[in-house]
Amino acid sequence: MKLLFSLVYFIVCLTPVVVPAQSIRRLDGSTIRADSLQRRVQYLMKVANVSGVALAVFNQNKPVFVQTFGLADVPQQKPLINSSILYAASFAKVVFAYQVMQLVEEGVINLDKPLVSYLDRPLVDYIIKGWKRGYADLRGDERYTKITARMCLDHTTGFPNWRWFEADKKLKIKFEPGSRYSYSGEGLYLLQFVIEQLTGTDYETLSQQRVFNPLGMSNTSQIWQPRFDSAVAYGHNREGKPYELMRWKEASAGGSMSTTLADYVKFYTALIQHRGLQLASFREMIRPQVRIRSKQQFGPDASVDSPANDPIDLSYGLGVGVLKSPHGRAFFKEGHDAGWGHYCICFPDKGIAVVIMTNNDNGESIFKELLATSIGDTFTPWQWENYVPYSVVR
């Protein structure tokens, strides 16, 4: 199966979408030809058994290389194309942060005002239907009244990532809000809930009004649309078997969004050009809000402090991670779920960025080399990100 899987996507990769022969500028001033980058992607996919890769590289804050490789559906040998529907995973969190900063500019919400002050009754008294289950678990722990929008966006609420990862499946505050970084989708959803109460508008509608429609992202939604079925890309396990497709019925700022490479490039271009945001708001997003001391982002070492990332001043901004490099500050975001591995990073002082989306559990194993090859990024803290290079896996 492994050999067949490798052969199938290798054949597809031999006939990629044609792009003009051009040079892509990297961080150190060197360049790489588009055809050389294509060949390197194909090689990495082959040796690491990656089903599909969607890649965009930016120079001068504009996309100069946008291409897909491999398969959207391995058993059906369906090619991955720019309009294939991809699960965005936590790439969705950047879209949410972008909208929150718009609302901050408009005076709808303040980053540092306790979220409970925007509600007409105690947070713990709200009954929320659906999978989110509400906030009754927090009754008796008044620390929830301290949580602000800034804490939600920089992951310092004290919430776990998701309550269902906890042994008792209950939502709890695990440390004093605002005191340290700990990645939390629950924090993003709390802010979403408050914004929905404030605006009287559901998050899917807000996203369409504020981002997707203005940017022409016609194949992007926070909930699954029936029209997506004909263009769907599946996430795959390491052997190339598709996972069951999740068709989200409820919008979640933490990660329900489906999109395409073409659409996400439209959003990311707007973001790095700070279109739709004032420059001050964009700078606040990518400014370090809290230093990150953890040895790794997830797993047992997430609670173990380490000086390993002190040289890059690893921090979190608002909706994005932040690091220091010889080429200036950079901001990044990852996305992960079963069958999906995504990563993007931008170096604003250089106007250089890259977006990588993969639909395979092996995808993250090529990130280290792909980042170095495409834009010369050797600063991404891949060990902290829990990325294990394919050469180590083998």
Key terms:
alpha+beta, nine-stranded antiparallel β-sheet, disordered N terminus
In short:
The chain is α+β, with helices and mostly antiparallel strands. 26% of the residues lie in helices and 17% in strands.
Outline the fold blueprint.
Blueprint: H1 2-13, E1 23-25, E2 31-33, H2 34-48, E3 52-59, E4 62-73, E5 78-79, E6 86-87, H3 92-105, H4 149-153, H5 185-199, H6 203-212, E7 258-259, H7 261-272, H8 279-285, E8 290-291, E9 315-316, E10 321-325, E11 328-337, E12 340-347, E13 352-358, H9 367-375, H10 390-393
Antiparallel strand pairs: 1-2, 3-4, 3-13, 4-5, 6-7, 8-9, 9-10, 10-11, 11-12, 12-13
Helix pairs in contact: 1-2, 2-9
Notes on the protein architecture:
With 394 residues, the chain is of the alpha+beta class. The longest helix is centred in the first third of the chain and has 15 residues. A 9-stranded antiparallel β-sheet has the order 5-4-3-13-12-11-10-9-8, with helices on both faces. A two-stranded antiparallel sheet has the order 1-2. Strands 6-7 form a two-stranded antiparallel ribbon. It has 2 domains: 228 residues, no CATH class; 102 residues, no CATH class. The N terminus is likely disordered. The two termini are 17 Å apart. Strand 3 and strand 4 form a beta hairpin.
